[in-house]
Amino acid sequence: MAVTPDTTHPQHAALLTQWCDLLRRTRVAPISDTPGPEAPAPEAYGEDLLGRWAEEQRKYHTTDHLVAVIHHIVELAAYADDPDAVLLAAWFHDAVYRPDRSENEERSAALAERALTEAGVDAARVAEVVRLVRLTTSHDPAPEDRNGEVLCDADLAVLAGEPAAYAAYAAAVRQEYGFVPDDDFRSGRAAVLRQLLDLPRLFRTPIGHERWEHIARRNLGTELELLLAT
Questions:
Q1: What does the pLDDT read at residue 29?
Q2: Is residue 171 part of a domain?
Q3: How many CB atoms lie within 10 A of CB 228?
Q4: Which of 127, 133, 203, 205 could cysteine-pair with 109, CB 3.0–4.6 Å?
Q5: In this structure, are residues 33 and 69 in contact, taking their beta carbons and an 8 Å threshold?
Q6: Distance, first Cα to last Cα, the chain
Q7: Are the CB atoms for 19 and 46 separated by under 8 Å?
Q8: 55 lies in a domain?
Q9: Phi, psi (5° rounding) for residue 27?
Q10: In sequence order, which residues have a C-beta less than 8 Å from that of residue 183 and are 6 or more positions away?
Q11: Which DSSP string do the residues of the chain spell out, in sequence order?
């Protein structure tokens, strides 16, 4: 864990506190609050993660996205079998993010496995977090995968924003892929939109489906129409 901490986000301190509380209640091996070579303090892991979420290349997959996903997981927590595993997965699901690479989810999952094992989280929960992080590649949880449903719904909730918010989201995604020529971006983005629209349900939890499904499909369809008309 060696990313330089970033303390400029207005919710940095609150997020760090949330992380430390989450790690302390999910670990089984004791971790000292004093940093050391065998037992880094919980804060060390949180600062590393927050530094990752604040990296310069991020325009949408930022600390604000992490805050939003955590917020929605809390909203949907009653549907999860292990809400804390889902929260841990939220912290790690885009912890490694390079727009020019395709293996971000796999690298994020590997980081989660390494860091959470070192931090003293039990092996079964670590395995569940790793599985959940990988699931964000497809956002297509299996039936009865309650943890997966909550994480994917929380991650996709941005699709159901008001028109201005959705437009800002789409513009931020384009910024992250600023190195891609317009024609290539349009075709790639259209493929992503079609993949989402082809899912039987974008949102699997009852609340997520009721609140967000119709709005998200309208937003995705509108963006796709605009891309194809350009």
A1: 62
A2: yes
A3: 11
A4: 133
A5: no
A6: 43
A7: yes
A8: yes
A9: -80, 155
A10: none
A11: --PPP---STTHHHHHHHHHHHHHHHBSS---SS--SSS--HHHHHHHHHHHHT-TT-SSSSHHHHHHHHHHHHHHGGG-S-HHHHHHHHHHTTSS--TT-S-HHHHHHHHHHHHHHHHTB-HHHHHHHHHHHHHTTTT-PPTT-HHHHHHHHHHHGGGG--HHHHHHHHHHHHHHTTTS-HHHHHHHHHHHHHHHHTSS-S--SHHHHHHHHHHHHHHHHHHHHHHHH-
Q: Closest Cα to residue 48, out of 107, 130, 115, 136? A: 115
Which domain range does residue 202 map to?
A: 12-229
**Is the CB of residue 62 less than 8 Å from the CB of residue 53?**
yes
Task: For residues 99 and 104, give the distance between their C-alpha atoms in angstroms, rounded to a whole number.
Answer: 8
The predicted pLDDT at position 31 comes to 52
> Is residue 2 in a domain?
no
Which residues, 6 or more positions from 195, have their beta carbon under 8 angstroms from its beta carbon?
Answer: none
Interhelix angle 146-156/63-76, nearest 10 degrees: 130
Residue 189: CATH number of its domain: 1.10.1300.10
194-200 contacts at long range (C-beta below 8 A, 24 or more positions apart): 194/224, 196/139, 196/156, 196/159, 196/220, 197/221, 197/224, 199/139, 199/140
CA distance 100 to 105: 13
Looking at the DSSP assignment, which residues form a beta bridge with residue 121? 27
Both tokens of 132, joined, read 């959940």
pLDDT tens digit string along 106-156?
999 999 999 999 999 999 999 999 999 999 999 999 999 999 999 999 999
Paired tokens of 84: 């804390």
Domain assignment present for residue 89? The answer is yes
Count of the separate structural domains present in the chain: 1
